[in-house]
Structure formats: structure tokens, C-alpha cells
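Re: magnesium ion structure - here you go.
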Amino acid sequence: ETTANQIAAGEVVERPVSVVKELVENSLDAGATRIIVELTQGGLSGIKVVDNGCGMSPEDAMLCWQRHATSKIRQAADLNRITTLGFRGEALPSIASVAKLTLTTRAGEDLAGTEVLVEAGQILRSSPVGCPAGTTIEVKELFFNTPARRKYLKSPHAEAGQVSDLINRLALARPDVRIELRSNGRVVFFSPGNGSLRDTAAAVFGADNVRSMIEVNYQGRLFCIKGLISKPVLTRASRQYQSFFINGRYIRSGLISSVLQQAYQTQIPSGRFPIAVLHISLDPTQVDVNVHPTKMEVRLAQEKEVAEELLAALSEPLNLP
Ligand code: ADP
Ligand code: MG
């Protein structure tokens, strides 16, 4: 069982940013409206995620360390209409197999919370504890028992940078949730959590950049889009300032990138890219999120039709001559 978890960990847990991703996605799935992520030494010494979500019962606080003990999926048929970010029931067991963890959690309706200590996949101790409603997971000494994996880690600064990019994307994915990032005790980012994509984008890209961005609000045959795209004068030398979300999930898509570029036609010089945040909603059965375990690549049904409609939807608000 520990071995299976360590193998799964090889897919899910590569470095601090992958741990943060899984923990924050769990917080979002738990309905949290406030999430705090704290890194010590870029997450190499410690990662802590605090949320105000639904919390866990004492039973679930023990069960969640077992593989596939997910509470989120009941039948194979559910796989085609996943509404939660997690569904494999592998993240917590995987992380626990390669680190030392403390879970502190309380469901709103319970009087007492539960604290569970887990190390290398083994539950060391569990006890009732007084704590706020919600869940806190603290991960220490990542890869302490798999020294070979530590070699692939970068500097604290580089690891923290990756987490920071992830937090930006998660904030843009969920403007309704206040997400805060602390690094070595200092607050380095927070999103307003007021539901406004523009305010959230201002926190991520800077207010000056966002002020002139154009709103996209499209309701079409195959999908809806809400988002912000920059005027042709405001471009960047990389695509790093483009975030695409399908049904709330951050995705990478060469198709969407190239259609976006096409929408600007010859208005922007080669090697330059617009800033963009696009939320696309479409029928979940038209998106396959099972392509990769980290679920960033997606496969779309009707790619060609989607591309055509997307080009029209993005070109219109740009209103280029
Ligand atoms: P998955 O997200 O695929 O269900 P995980 O291993 O990430 O699997 O989590 C296992 C289970 O632990 C979840 O299904 C959920 O019931 C519980 N859980 C994990 N994190 C939280 C959290 N922050 N708040 C409430 N429940 C949580
Ligand atoms: Mg999960």
C-alpha cells in the first residue's frame, strides 16, 4: 500500500507546487471562500494550507489517507460529469507517503475537531482538538524518505516562483474565493475574493495593466466565455500572461492560444502576445479531462467548430479594422 502510494506520488507529487495544487483544489472542492497558503523556504521546509471549507468528520479525517477513499465520486458514470477538481482519491495518500503531515479539521456542525499526524503514509496519532471550522494541512519535510526525489528540487526561490504562478491562476479561476500566499512569514499576494474578475486580474497583473483591458462576454451555440483581453497595444513577450479555464479548471490549450493570436490578426508584432484571462463554459461531456493525471491538458470534442466560433467570439470585442 505504501509502495503503491509512492508510485502514485511520482505522478501527482513532483515538487512543492504540485502539493499546493492538490491541497488548494481540495479546499476549493470543500467550498472554502478563504484559503491561505504558507510556504517556508519555497515549500521545501514547509507547506501549510488553511481553509474555511466544510471540514471533515473524525471518521473522514482517518479515511482520507487511504487510496481511492474519495468522497467525491460514486460511480464510474460520474467520471463524465465531474464537477469537483479532485476525483481520484490519490492526492492525500500520495503526499502523505513522501512527507510528514498534520491535518487539523472540523466540520461546521461538530463541536470538536480532529488532529491527525501522518508520516510516510502511516497514521502516527489522532486526537480530538479545538479548532476553527475548516481544514488545515501542514506538510513538512517533503521527500524526507525518498532522497532520490529531493535531487530534482530547485532553489527555494525557484520553487516559490512556481507556487506563486499557480496561486495567480487559481485566484483567476475563482474570483469568488479570497486566496492569500505567504512566503517565509510575509504576505506576497492576495486576491480580493469579491467575485470580480477584473479586480482579481488587477491583483495578479497590476491595476495599470488591467484598467484598459477589454471585457469578453459571449454566449454562443457551443460555449459561453467571460473574460478580459488586452488591447493590441498591450502585449507581452511570452504567453505566461494568458490563462484559460474550462468549466473552472485551468487548462493549457494550443488551440485556444493560437485562436487568440489569430483574433489580433496583424495588430501585434510577431513574438508578442496579448494578456488574456478567459473563462469558457461548455457542456462537460464535450471536455475530456482524463488525458493527464495533473489534468492540465484537455481534449475537446468538435475542435474545429469550437475554434471557428472562438475566433468570432474573440474578434468581435476587439473590433479591429
Ligand atoms: P480527491 O480530491 O480526489 O477526492 P484527495 O486525496 O485529494 O482525493 O482527498 C481525499 C478526501 O479527503 C476528499 O475526497 C475529501 O473528502 C477529503 N478532503 C481533503 N481535503 C479536504 C479539505 N480541505 N476539506 C474537506 N475535506 C477534504
Ligand atoms: Mg483532491
